[in-house]
From TrEMBL:
The chain crosses the membrane at residues 71-89, 95-115, 122-143, 163-186, 198-221, 241-267, 279-302, 314-331, 399-422. Keywords: Membrane, Transmembrane, Transmembrane helix. This is Zinc ribbon domain-containing protein.
Amino acid sequence: MTETTMTCRVCAVVVPEGEFCGNCGAAASARRGDGPSWLRLSAYAAAPREHVLRPSVPSTVFPRAPRHLRVAFGVALTGVVVLLVAMAVPMWLAPLIGVVGVGLPMVFLGYLAVADAVADRLAAALLVSAVLSIACGVGWRIATDLAAARVDDDALGLPASTLDLLLTCLGIPVGFLILVLAPTVVIQRVRPGSREPLRGMMIGSFGAICFVTAGSMTALLPELSGGPVDTDGQSAVDLVVGGLIQGIAVPLTAAAVGGAVGATLWFVPRRDTGHRPRWYSLTSPLPSIGFGLVAYLGLGVLDFVSPPSVVETVVYAVLTVVALYVLRIVVHCTLLHAQPDVAGMPDAVLQCAECERVVPDLPFCPRCGVAGLAASQSSRARRRSEPPAPVSSISPVRLLSVLTVAVVVVAAGCTAASVWLVPQEAAVVCPPDCGTPPIATPVATNPRFSSADGQFSVSYPGPETAYDATFEPNGVVLDLLAGDGGTLRLFGQPANGQTPKQIADDMLREHYPDATFDYEIPNAFVGYQLGYGELADDYPADAIGDDDRNRVLVMVGVKNDYALIAAAAGPYREFTPEFGSGHPSGANFFLALDMAKYVNSFTWRGDPPR
């Protein structure tokens, strides 16, 4: 029986009759809203039943998955989100860390298993990508923590330094993008293998997920020693937001950027069209790299500005959605215009991986329009030689069961490890282990700063000390260069009839709008004048546990309607017999050990000499 043919309206090639051209993938007849003929918006190249602009995460992140398993992968992603929320609401920190570490990576490993990654000889490239990305992620996290230790603890109202601006808005975002893409570029240069866009997308996305997860776990694993439940940290809402950002938004965004760049690096243009893509075309790596650069520079500016956590959370969510759209469009364009890695055999037939119909072996399925490259090279060759059969024997129930068991086992393991790692409560035996006296040493030998308006003066550490002092018209700023670091600002301003508490609360709301009140300092004295003091905790929107916890201390004294203020900020660390003064303290940050003598060295104009 002779099969009927048609002449494609776009490429003018005679192909078997169908809804799509088997040579170029164009629709047999023009469709409304399809856009230019080269774009084919109505039918996504990896899942033609979907519009290219349809918000479908499974077919975007897992385009090579068999059609009957896409829903299962969507359920798996939803399950990871549910687990993150379920662990965060009751403040179960240890299992939450486990889900962040293995949730999305385990789902992606399941995708690699059903996408014939091993049969398609992708295992070696994926393994190299994972090893390089994990090494980069661990090193990146350690390096950025060390770099940020000196610029992340500005006290109230201080202008940002040039170093802080360059590091936060430029250095960290650019470095992050380079390391996310580096393993993919290395593999493409050294051993690319079969030049299929989806092959590059899988390598790029998997490497990006490994990089982000390795960095997150480097920071989070030490938190296991704090116990399985976070009893004194951030609120449940903040923990939910932090879990979703670190467990879903950040790795998905990185996977989208890495996958888009990988797909374009493995893209080879069709030879029969005579058209070579330009540097700005969607099949070129430069637009995808440019999007990644703009996205991460934007996140750097967001981190520098430190808006309210609600704004930061919305930005992360919107960026994730936009990144997934970029990945979807780039993958669609590369599949439509890529040179087939395996030459088609029009006289042969095979079973379409998408619609499961027996069709001529061409670059595109004439029935559904799926790109032939959406199936792996080995799978394509196998389906030529074997009679039609179900595309995959893996059931959705089995896939979800394996993924669920794996994630739950790891979460339970993290909980058990946390219980085992919790140190015994340090017993302070006094005497003999009483620590250092709480009374500060005299400061008479220290130099004094006098404000430009003559309203007050205050002592500050001199040269060749652990502090770097800078001066303002109304105060002095002390950067602690030892220990955990920190910043202390000693300054004055008109009280304008406000009480010390009102001044402290207003300053915290202005400069740390998301800070949570911890406790009020009893009998707080500033310059030996009874005033008000409080400690608060500030967490970034993506924080989990105490690793990014920033301690803020404000003390205010008012006399003659003029307020003298001591504002300090630094990383949180609990005082123990081995750290701090040797005895328990509610302050729990290093700078608090040394600030009392400077706070009480304040003098108002007209005060008698001390």
